[in-house]
């Protein structure tokens, strides 16, 4: 799961957040209906759409209900804005947080049994090995994740956020963010070293295991099965309360407060964040309901 939480940060390298898996993974479901909600009062509507950061090429997921919400929204708000055409801002944030002196050599940060896989991944990345010794473990993991995405057939222009941003930009509608690039990367930078090393080990795992996990996630997302999405997050993060609090609960609380403040302003907006943030206990949806808001499921 850490790999998928980190997938957006891979855009710091100027890559698109879209995945074209093999034919078995790219099959279109009978009826893709990703979850969509609305919170509304007399003069304000906030649409909440759960995204998946990686998608197969040409994967059909838009519906009439979703397009109606997009057309009716005056602004799009995403987790953070990554400019694919001009990624210097994100890359500066990545370097500012992810490079340090006096770190252990990168080979010492994985178990001995995985050092051969690490060596192969570094060679495949094309980045000089000495550069990795100066990287925080989480940053090294982000760079090496690129190998897995390429092995799985990474394509551009297909990610949900990219499609959404294009839809709003073409019509001259503003796009905002809930977190700056530095803020979002900071959540990973503050992870305990043990969690960062878990991410690094996942980044050098065989791409086949990552593809299987992605297939399950894609199916749950396409069905709008928030219970299945919640179970995945609970399974993968339940053994680490510190990790779950840092990457999920804390951010969900911040975003819920942002939405509550936005409800005081008239108009309609769409908020698009990773689907896991809108599923299950302590999700943004759950927190809004506990705060007394009526959240209506549109699809």
Question: Can you walk through the features of this model?
Answer:
Strands 4-3-5-2-1-6 form a six-stranded mixed β-sheet, with helices on both faces. Strand 1 (36-40) and strand 2 (44-51) form a beta hairpin. 41% of the residues are buried. The chain has 13 helices and six strands. Residues 7-26 have low confidence and may be disordered. With 299 residues, the chain is an alpha/beta fold. The protein has one domain.
Briefly summarize what is shown:
The chain is α/β, with parallel strands linked by helices and 299 residues long. It has 13 helices and six strands.
Features:
299 residues, alpha/beta, six-stranded mixed sheet, 13 helices, 48% helix, 10% strand
Q: Give the helix/strand class.
A: alpha/beta
Give the integer mean of the pLDDT values: 84
Overall strand count: 6
| Strand order in the largest sheet | 4-3-5-2-1-6
State the helicity in percent bands.
40-55%
- Helix-strand pattern, N to C? HEEHEHHHHHEHHHHHEHE
What low-confidence regions span 5 or more consecutive residues with pLDDT below 50?
Answer: 7-26
Distance N to C terminus: 25 Å
User: In what range is the share of β-strand residues?
Assistant: 5-15%
Query: Helical region count?
Result: 13
Query: Main sheet, how many strands, which sense, barrel?
Result: 6 strands, mixed
How many distinct folded domains? 1
Radius of gyration: 19 Å
What is the 3D form?
A: globular
